[in-house]
C-alpha cells in the first residue's frame, strides 16, 4: 500500500510530460508556425519606434471587387480565419487578415500604450498601403471592439461592419474591481496549457472540447515555453487593460455604417468573472440578451442568432456562421 502514492506520482508525472511534449515551443513572432496563406509585413512607426504588422492578403482570380477585412480576437491570430478566408475567396472576395501589434507574427513591443484608436490607425495605414478604398470590417471578440472603433473613426472606407460575438457589449468596470496591469501580468505569466484549456472550455465552448479547439489553446501554450514569454505576457496584460478601460458600448448609437451582428447565444465570455461573486457572475456575458440589446443600440443593425453556439461561431458552427455572412455581403 505504501508504494501506491509513488506509483500515482509516477503516472501523473508521465502524463504531464506527455502533455508537455505535445506543446511545441513557438517563436516570439511565430517564426516556426505556418499560416494558411502567404504572410507579408506592413512597416510603420508609432510611439517613437518602428514596428511591423503581419498580414495575409488574398485576391482571387475571379474577383468581385469587394474586400473583407477580418480582425482576430485577443486569444487568437489571423490563422484561425482559415475556413472563413477559403469561403470568402471562393465567392470572389478579396480578404485582408492582419495580426494586430503584439499578436501572431506581428512585432512584440517592449512597452507600448495600447488604445483601440492606435490599433485602428495601424490597420487603416495597412489598408491604405494596399490601395484599398473600401472594405467590410469584420471583427470577432476583441476584434469586435476594434472593428467598432474603426467604423467610428473611418466610416468613409467602412462599407459594412460585422461583429461576431464581440466582447465589450457591457461595461465590466461597473461590476468588476479594477485590476492593475501588474495584476493582469501576474495572471498571464503563470499560465499553463491546462489553464488555457480550462478557461476556453468554460467560457467559449461550454465545457465541450475537441482537436479543433485544442489547436488554438496549444498555440497560446507554445508561447509559454519561449524564453521571452514575459514580453508576450506583459503585452497581454496591457491589452487586457485596454479592453477593460476603453469600452465602446456607449458609442454604438453613433455607428453610421450598415451593421450585422452574428451571435452565438451560448457564449458567456466576460472579463473579470473570476473576480466577482457567484451572484454577480451570473449576470455577466449573457449573449442571448446582449445580442438583442446591442442590435437596438446600433441604428438599422441586423441580428443573426446561432443557438447552442459559444464564443467562436466560425470555429464551432461554421456552416451556421458563413451562410448568413455570405448572404449579407452579397446584397
From TrEMBL:
UniProt-listed Pfam families: Abhydrolase_1 (PF00561)
InterPro entries, per database record: AB_hydrolase_1 (IPR000073), AB_hydrolase_fold (IPR029058), AB_hydrolase_sf (IPR050266)
Cleavable signal peptide: 1-20
Domain of life: Bacteria
Gene Ontology biological-process annotations: acylglycerol catabolic process
Domain (AB hydrolase-1): residue spans on this chain: 67-317
GO terms for cellular component: membrane
GO molecular function: monoacylglycerol lipase activity
Keywords linked to the UniProt accession: Hydrolase, Signal
Protein name: Alpha/beta hydrolase
Organism: Zunongwangia pacifica
